[in-house]
Amino acid sequence: MIPVVRTKRALERLLARWRGKRFSVGLVPTMGALHAGHAALLRRAAAENDRVIASVFVNPLQFGPREDYGRYPRALPADRKLAAAAGACAVYAPSAAAMYPRGFSTYVEVKGLSDLYCGRHRPGHFRGVATVVLKLFNQVRPDRAYFGEKDWQQVRVLETMIRDLDVGVALVRVPTVRERDGLALSSRNAYLSAAERRAAPALRRALEAGRAAARRPRARPRMIAAAVRRALSGTGLKVQYAGVWDGRLLAAAFLGRTRLIDNLPL
Ligand code: PAF
């Protein structure tokens, strides 16, 4: 079984061994509760690097005060197995106290981008993401890092951070992995009741309805977003936002207390 590395010092020892052999290193940052979407990131990383490390860290900085930090699924033994089977050589699982010791006071903010869509509804979220990802990059110093396109805005925020701060890591975008009924894989899908799970694929279908609207002559972003909203009415999903941005159609919706996001290229 692959090792679980818990401290920066143990991580440095492992990385020194790998660097001594001139191995390239791929990093797959995660918050755990790994699923087939993470496995796709890990397999891609394993195909492109000599060694792959999966980080598992539920990052308190990216959750709002009334969000699901406390109940976010934590499953390290299962994560370790899945990561190993998908090609990881180690799991890095630091504690929150080690990542954010007393006196921690430096944050990364990607202005503008972080205030749209998910950022508008989750103030501080992307600041938390950018800060932890830059820390992970500095700790692991990977050649490449792998992120899923399901979190499109996250990918764009991190690409901007990498460009603006001259971070020497290549970000690799990996396509969204879906269930057979179209639902994008997410660790939060575990929150859904059986009835909610049956309703959840409506989000992807609504995005497809929006995409169909986009193909009509003289389609405007507002009409496309309205088509998504219309397709969601009566499905049990409550739209938080739907919008056209960066060549994608993006939406977020609540099913009960569970927030789902998804996007499609236009
Ligand atoms: O996408 C995620 O799981 C998280 O936002 C990330 C990139 C691991 C940072 O905590």
Report the sheet-strand fraction.
15-25%
Number of helices: 10
Helix share bin: 25-40%
Spell out the CATH superfamily of the largest domain: HUPs
Shape: globular
The CATH topology of the largest domain turns out to be Rossmann fold
Average pLDDT, rounded to a whole number, is 98
Low-confidence stretches: none
The CATH architecture classification of the largest domain is 3-Layer(aba) Sandwich
The domain count comes to: 2
Q: Provide the list of bound ligands, each named once.
A: pantoate
Largest sheet at a glance? 6 strands, parallel
Report how far apart the termini are: 42 Å
Total count of strands: 9
The helix/strand series, from N terminus to C terminus, equals: EHEHEHEHHHEHEHHHEEE
**Could you say which structural class the secondary elements and strand pairing correspond to?**
alpha/beta
Strand order of the largest sheet: 1-4-3-2-5-6
CATH class of the largest domain: Alpha Beta
Radius of gyration: 19 Å
Structure described in brief:
The protein is α/β, with parallel strands linked by helices and 266 residues long.
Can you give a write-up of this model?
The protein is of the alpha/beta class and 266 residues long. The protein folds into two domains: 4-174, 3-Layer(aba) Sandwich (Rossmann fold), CATH 3.40.50; 187-265, Pantoate--beta-alanine Ligase, Chain: A,domain 2 (2-Layer Sandwich). It contains ten helices and nine strands. A six-stranded parallel β-sheet has the order 1-4-3-2-5-6, with helices on both faces. Strands 7-8-9 form a three-stranded antiparallel β-sheet. Strand 2 (25-30), helix 2 (36-48) and strand 3 form a beta-alpha-beta unit. Helix 6 packs across helix 7 and helix 9 packs antiparallel against helix 10. The radius of gyration is 19 Å and the shape is globular. 38% of the residues are buried. The structure holds pantoate. Pantoate is lined by residues 29-31, 59, 62, 129, 132-133, 151, 154.
